């Protein structure tokens, strides 16, 4: 599929997320969707950007402290600065990364970015189809299940409604992985049930699978796994590092929403790193 063939009459979470991070690969429909919903959920910009900073710290931890050299990034989204392979290979040049996404625009841009990088690939697969991910020839080429690996579900947990059996999706690869493997996870949470239901309704109406959860509901997905310190927390509080590389500036149109999460903490990005018990 070429860029000209990509449907651009409905928004996608990957393109909206990328725009929040200062990316350029989006359409008017994505920007309109964001601007229509941000007044009701102004925290979304901050928590999206906090999640991207969390990604850097998580991958650095997994390489430097857990000794992991292979990664599967589920629902990876559009390439921006400090992608998983860039962070991992900065600290371990031999690190290998398989990106997984179903959005065709993600696949096109990721393939262009990764051209010539033999230790990193992107595969077209739905993260709900874990057997499809495992059976893909590029996964089999790059991932050795006799060695520890990390599977990342970063800011995609809310795209796994209960009807999709999220515990199965989240655990399939980890249950088959070698000792020392890790699972990294984050998703939007709230304890305000009314606002959570409103957000969920808006997303599903736009064709974006979504389930807002409380912290306790997220915790329940990981029964039998052990969170790595400091546990499952607001991602801002997961090993904060003021000296880590900054993000690209937010688009000018979004600047008025920066800092909203400090005024209203209903919605947060919640996550951490987990290990088999």
From TrEMBL:
* Record InterPro entries: SAM-dependent_MTases_sf, SAM_dep_MeTrfase_SAV2177_type
EC number(s) on record? Answer: 2.1.1.-
What class does this enzyme belong to in the EC scheme? transferase
Q: Which residues form the signal peptide?
A: none
What keywords is this UniProt entry annotated with? Methyltransferase, Transferase
> Which GO terms label this protein's molecular function in UniProt?
methyltransferase activity
Pfam families according to UniProt: Methyltransf_19
Its BP terms in the Gene Ontology are:
methylation
Q: Which CDD domains match?
A: AdoMet_MTases
Protein name (record) = SAM-dependent methyltransferase
Native source organism of the sequence: Actinomadura chokoriensis
High-level lineage:
Bacteria, Bacillati, Actinomycetota, Actinomycetes, Streptosporangiales
